[in-house]
Amino acid sequence: MQAVKTSLTRLLGIRVPIVCAAMANGANAQTACHIQVEVTRGGGFGFVGAGFSTPESLRQDFDFIRSSFPDRGNKPLPVGYGFIGWLLDKNEDSAKQLLDITIENNVQAIWLAFGTDIHRWIQHVRTSSANARAHHKPLIFVQVTSVEEALVAANEWKVDAIVAQGTESGGHGGASAPSTFTLVSEILAALPQDGAAPAPPILAAGGMATGAQVAAYLSLGAAGAVLGTRFLLTPESAYKPAQRAALLAARGPGATVRTMALDTARASFGWPPNIDGRGLNNKIVDDIEAGVDHATIQARCKAATEAGDSSYMVVWAGQGVSLMNEIKPVKDVMVELHTDLVRQLQKSRRLLQEDS
Fold this sequence. Notes:
Low-confidence stretches: none
CATH architecture of the largest domain: Alpha-Beta Barrel
Pfam family, one: NMO
GO molecular function: nitronate monooxygenase activity
Distance between the termini: 33 Å
InterPro entries: Aldolase_TIM (IPR013785), NMO (IPR004136)
Order of helices and strands: HEHEHEHHEHEHEEHEHEHHEHEHHH
Shape: globular
Keywords: Flavoprotein, FMN, Oxidoreductase, Signal
Oligomer: single chain
């Protein structure tokens, strides 16, 4: 199938400018690695969400990934790992251990998000002695939700790629972020990609479900796109059958909502100011808005999760979920996205015609 060339595909050595988001709760351990391995095999690039990983689980991850790519030799493992800044901040020694394990296992990239001191961890990744035990210094991807954050990441931190996450995105993100289209447009205007010293590749993240949507962002000037929810509707996902069924049933503009209610239900506290999450709008949100006490909500959520009742389960999802109609293996999702992307780019090219 025809490769799509952008600054992102050149940076990572991939054929398709599609990245699977680092999802810390939608998938975990070997299951998460399986998704990312299949995305990479499909020509894209996958990030494993390591926000809640332990040193032991990380080492198990790398055993699986290495066995999946037995011929890599000293080449970097063709996956990335994503870390949550505020969780790293909680324990410096533990954070450095997790990052060093990741670095010395020769991953291709590290993604950092949701912290008030991200630069601290960028510096550690770049200067850690673990780099001497690896054969490659990992690329740095940083997630941003505003033009101001993007300017800092590009001009001061000198990151290798910027993930521009708009409000449509599932999971955690900026409570006041603009739409993905607006954010990417503003960042591209502030950080031109074609100057003497081009800015790092800009990846669009939020609300996408199809290759045609990815093509639209490439036409806008983005170097690639990040998808998350679409990969939760796969057999490889750690989402429970009830959660997948809820995603398939989600329709309409009110199907998802930005809220902290879902974090309250699972007692996940500590997120930085102005960060919330987007998930399916269900009875958890209703109870929070009705003033039901948190302990009761948490007990109901636990019981519903054990019973497989999606009406009271945490189901992260982006606004693009309404365009997702079936569960299929990751490799088939990648073929579908790639085919759709190439077809749409070819259609766009036909819009330009010489005057007769």
